[in-house]
Amino acid sequence: MKKILLTVLILSGTMVFSQEKSGAAQFWENLKSHCGKAYEGKLAEHIKNDDFSGKTLTMFIRTCEDGRITIPFYVGDDKSRTWVLTYEDDRIKLKHDHRHEDGSEDKVTQYGGTSTNSGLDTIQFFPADQETANLIPYASTNAWWITLDEKTFTYNLKRLGSPNPEFNVTFDLTKPVATPEPQWGWE
Questions:
Q1: Would you tell me which of 50, 115, 126, 139 could form a disulfide with 94, CB atoms 3.0–4.6 Å apart?
Q2: Where does the source fall among the domains of life (predicted)?
């Protein structure tokens, strides 16, 4: 784990402490270092998902603006999914933007959640927010999390209280792949 040194300044006889970067700030900076790169992923071995199994899974860290990162997640030729991360007030929000091939929004879109604390530089948790509960009642107990280290990025989902298994996909950050075309609705 990277640590940022605590700096002490003495100004006019008064000690001023500058704080260490938070877990969320470090996570954000680490993720931004991959901007413009695409990576292939694999489902966890226990996942049996007909929509994803046997298809090429690619994430593309497409845009890194101030406070906003977009990550299209391609499943074979399906370019409908984009993870939208926003950073504000030392918290990270994850939203799922789903589009049809013509670029119009799916009826189930913009669901997700915001981290409840700063988290760690290697992991951020996103419990379902009220907007998600209103849009998809059965998803009100969803918890998503993303892990990030020098070699891997994982996207994970657990439906708490549900018999459905976790969903986990791991991307190999050591092997960038060709950047794909823009996701649907984001040209």
A1: 126
A2: Bacteria
Structural domain span for residue 63? 24-177
Nearest to 175 by CA among 155, 143, 150: 150
Using CA atoms, how far apart are residues 92 and 85, in angstroms rounded to an integer?
Answer: 7
Model confidence at 15, pLDDT cuts 50, 70, 90, reads low
pLDDT in tens, 69-111: 999 999 999 999 999 999 999 999 999 999 999 999 999 999 9
Residue 21: name the closest of 119, 123, 124 by CA. Answer: 119
**pTM exceeding the 0.90 threshold for the entire prediction:** no
Q: Which amino acid is at 50?
A: D
Q: Which residues pair with 156 in a beta bridge?
A: 145, 168
Q: How many domains does the chain have?
A: 1
